Amino acid sequence: MSILWFLLIISISIFVHELGHYLAARVQGVGVKNFGVGFGPTLLKFERWGTTWRLNAIPLGGYAEIEGMMPGDTHGYARLSSWGKFLILVAGVVMNLLLAWGVLAALASIQGIPQTRAEVTEVLPDSLAEQAGFRVGDRILSLNGEKLTAYDQVTRFRQSTGEKVFVVLRDGAEVTLRFNWDDTQTRLGIVYRPELVGYTRINFFQGFARAIGETVVAVPRFVQEFAGSIARILSGQQAQGVAGPVGIVNITGQAAEQGLGTLVGLLAAINLSLAVFNLLPIPGLDGGRILVLVANVISGGRIKPETEARLSYGGFIFLILLIVLVTINDIRNLVGG
């Protein structure tokens, strides 16, 4: 069942992404010969609006075959202004973002925003946390008089030096814990996990704005973690900050066990990740194509279509290799090796 949910979520995400490219091309009068979700043998196809729509056997990608994007073409995409080309290239990312923000906004208005607190699961020996009096089972309620509404807000104590005051729930009673944080320390010394305590509902538009704000904050962290994980994988090390098809199937199975709301949230998360990943300046991805487009504008068109095609081919080979390495990493993570 996990695989079926995975296929559905990935197929929706890919379809929405490629639909963005398709719509941006058609609105500018550029034809699209083929629109496909997946690669390999075609399972289902039909023709509509001058396009052959295909559902293929391997749902790990997709394509919108836009007219005029081949080297030497002078029609379709090739005749557009730089802004017109940019619109087509960025439209897939925009559609993934809109879907993710819309899903998160709907969840916030229907189910509500999950309110979590941190439950301490381990206190490291001889640590600052042990000296301050933290115990396993403590539920962290507030920091310096401010109520914590999400478990990962615990790390706010790192933002400045000085005395830190935590209030925790222990055996039904509130306990105040104090310690001093300065530049000589590297960690507090607790391990904690999220504990769901309820939901707070907001309207759709508030949820949409909140989703945009969280995305802006999360993108730099995502890029940094992704780059670090890829660097570790390429050096032969094991990494936890990135997941390929095998890892996503496992994550999907865990989400399915928690209910439909978690699965829908996973759909949003995958679309956000897909949007950011596609904007990376890697040849073959939308971000790589946009980079070449900008470079061509700056250089006065010195990058030939043939050169761009070779760059895209090299980027495609790199991405295939990356998928293989990430899949190996997924398997190592699953077996604990």
UniProtKB/TrEMBL annotation:
It comes from the Bacteria. GO terms for biological process: proteolysis. Residues 120-172 form the PDZ domain. GO terms for cellular component: membrane. SUPFAM superfamilies: PDZ domain-like. The keyword Translocase does not apply. It is found in: Membrane. InterPro entries: PDZ, PDZ_6, PDZ_sf, Pept_M50_Zn, Peptidase_M50. One of its GO terms (molecular function) is metalloendopeptidase activity. Gene3D superfamilies: 2.30.42.10. Keywords: Hydrolase, Membrane, Metalloprotease, Protease, Transmembrane, Transmembrane helix, Zinc. The chain crosses the membrane at residues 86-107, 260-280, 311-331. Pfam families: PDZ_6, Peptidase_M50. Its main location: membrane. Its cofactor is Zn(2+). It is a multi-pass membrane protein. Belongs to the peptidase M50B family. This is RIP metalloprotease.
